[in-house]
Amino acid sequence: MSRRLYLGKLPADTRTEDVSKFFDGYGKIVDCRVMTGFGFVEFENARDAEDAMTHFNGKNFMGTNIVVEFAKESRPRREPYNDDRYGAPRTRRPPGIRISVTGISRDTSWQDLKDFGREAGSVSFADIDRDNVGTGILEYLSREDADRAVQELDGKDLRGQPVRVALGEERGPDNYRRDDRERYREDRHRDDRRDDRYNSRDDRYDRHERSSYRRERSRSPPPPPWRRSR
């Protein structure tokens, strides 16, 4: 049983002292770390950690109902797979059902979004689309969790702002490689056009040099000094 707890949906101004005081009385705390929006607390005894999780999960902390659950143990790093055609190896992510979340505030982090998605099921991936302001992405491993997320989370508040949640597409393990291939082809096309410009410029330079040489040859040399009239 784990002795380490994950804390989600923490207010942005949360301090380590606030968390330690909140869990005071449920056992000896050996480690407490607070980041923006989330944190971790570790107890000396696993039973104390379990009691704290049972009691505090969903409870109000500094005006927010926080998430308290066992922290996931670090997993061994997966071996990357190689694709010599497209450069460096990438780590394969398992397939998932994608959910689009729109209307999120600018100060929402990917961890906030993931905590929000966990209310409906097990989230395998979460990210904020920085190119499309107000848009985020969630992925669930099961279709059941994805459907539940659309039904239960659509219209709910995320960091004080209502958001829209819609079902996206089922992503296979190779989908994100397609984007890499598109960028690869675009880069190759751009390089080819650059080479064409350089070759064209070199041709113009050669023609200019040949023309200048012919003009120099066509000029009559000056007469020798003894032939000049006095």
TrEMBL record:
InterPro entries membership: Nucleotide-bd_a/b_plait_sf, RBD_domain_sf, RRM_dom, RRT5_SRSF_SR
Calcium found in the keyword field: no
Keyword Transmembrane carried by entry: no
A Pfam family the protein falls into: RRM_1
CDD domains, A to Z: RRM2_SRSF1_4_like (cd12339)
Annotated stretches, region: Disordered: 77-96, 152-230
Keywords attached to this entry: RNA-binding
Biased composition (Basic and acidic residues): 77-87, 167-219
RRM domain: residues covered: 3-73, 97-170
Biased composition (Pro residues): 220-230
A GO molecular-function descriptor: mRNA binding
Protein name as annotated: RRM domain-containing protein
Organism of this sequence: Hericium alpestre
